[in-house]
Specification:
single chain, 409 residues, TIM Barrel, 8-stranded parallel β-barrel, 3-stranded antiparallel β-sheet
């Protein structure tokens, strides 16, 4: 099987490399010339999942690893990177609100000696790529000990803002001051840098953990009097965060889009006739208190990128059923639809047999192409794009990405 270096060498032509670096529009394929096509990759920084490869690398080594990811994106004829810049209430830029991210130096709050987000914006744009700045609104830490946070951390200065749950610390979404603060913290980056989009993943209220309670009863008592039940109040809190952020992004920097990448099941049809023909164990509406369908219908966001991380034919959540459901959901709106793809499952022996076939992801793109509402795909994540252990990315690029494509507008 071709290794990552061989894959890139085989797919990258001298013309691709030159086009990526010269000014002006790159050569676009026929399909992209009409409406554009998003071809993105997530670069996760939390826990050093994708980048930096480990904490404590020199600034030069970190930058070299980052630009290698960007060069690889160009080589594979991708056109966007979704870089996680606020992984756990810390920052990959000199934030006015939160400490430097631990993933850079291994010590939260320690200056890494360079500006990763500023560099990423400059280097992506130099290569003809978009930079979608990926923020996690509420996660504070992947542990429950506030004393492990840097002394100046907002979560330590405002302990009443924070709740432990499932072995992690979270900002409490029901506190109005929290919602304003996390918006301010994220928009600080938008005000400083010419990012192309603000991007959120699927973490709003935390995923359910058996036997544990997200203890926001006191907050509900204080702020939830207008709601008949706590679930409705929680959904309203999330709605407020989305709606307010959408408005403020446009005020801070015009032209910056707002996209959200939720878990792929809004509600099962057995729960709600408007839901998908699935039997998902998690439903974002009920479990994460995130009414993702409403955000599309209300036009609060510019794009939605559901994580449809299952194979075609998977009984509980069939890719071939979820893509049409999301296409129908965005139909008649101005919200773009991109599909989040589980590249990390390709070749994993723990996954169903379909994922052992390198052509599974290529078939996803064939199926999605039958739905004109689908404007592209984003792959999780950069480490798998680099290593491509099953050859699935190489197969997909050979089948579908033979020419460069511009991003949708």
């Amino acid at each position: 099987m071709m290794g990552a270096a061989g894959t890139v060498a085989a797919l990258m032509t001298a013309g691709d490399a030159a086009a990526a670096r010269r000014p002006g529009p790159p050569p676009y394929g026929r399909r992209a010339a009409d409406a554009g096509e998003l071809r993105g990759v997530w670069i996760a920084t939390v826990g050093n999942l994708d980048w930096p490869s480990r904490p404590g690398l020199s600034a030069a080594a970190q930058e070299a690893e980052l630009t290698a990811h960007l060069d690889r994106a160009v080589a594979l004829r991708l056109n966007a990177v979704v870089l996680q810049v606020r992984p756990s209430a810390d920052a990959l830029w000199p934030s006015s609100y939160e400490p430097w991210a631990e993933c850079l130096t291994g010590v939260q709050g320690k200056d890494p000696g360079w500006d990763p987000l500023g560099t990423a914006v400059r280097e992506t744009h130099a290569r003809g790529l978009e930079l979608h700045a990926w923020f996690n609104p509420y996660r504070v830490a992947n542990h429950t000990d506030p004393s492990r946070l840097v002394a100046t951390h907002p979560a330590r200065r405002h302990p009443d803002w924070v709740l432990p749950y499932g072995g992690k610390l979270y900002y409490n979404p029901g506190v109005p001051e929290v919602r304003k603060f996390v918006q301010d913290a994220m928009l600080d980056a938008v005000s400083r840098y010419a990012v192309d989009a603000v991007h959120w993943d699927d973490y709003f209220y935390p995923y359910p953990v058996a036997g544990q309670v997200f203890d926001d009863d006191a907050t509900y008592e204080r702020y939830g009097a207008d709601f008949g039940d706590k679930a409705s109040w929680r959904r309203d809190n999330t709605d407020r965060l989305v709606r307010e952020t959408a408005t403020r992004i446009k005020e801070v920097r015009s032209g910056v889009r707002f996209g959200i990448s939720p878990f792929g099941v809004w509600r099962n049809s057995t729960t709600d006739p408007l839901g998908s023909d699935t039997a998902g164990g998690v439903q974002t509406y009920d479990d994460l208190h995130a009414d993702t369908r409403k955000w599309v219908k209300e036009g609060w966001i510019d794009y939605i990128c559901p994580q449809i991380y299952w194979n075609i034919g998977f009984p509980a959540a069939d890719y071939a059923k979820l893509v049409p459901w999301w296409a129908e959901t965005v139909r008649g709106t101005e919200v773009g639809l991109y599909i989040g793809e589980a590249l990390y499952k390709a070749g994993d022996p723990a996954q169903p047999a379909a994922w052992q076939d390198p052509a599974e992801l290529s078939r996803h793109l064939d199926l999605a192409a039958e739905h004109p509402e689908v404007g592209g795909h984003v792959y999780f994540s950069a480490k798998q794009v680099k290593d491509d252990p099953a050859g699935a990315m190489a197969r997909l690029v050979a089948d579908h990405y033979r020419a460069r494509a511009r991003t949708p507008r």
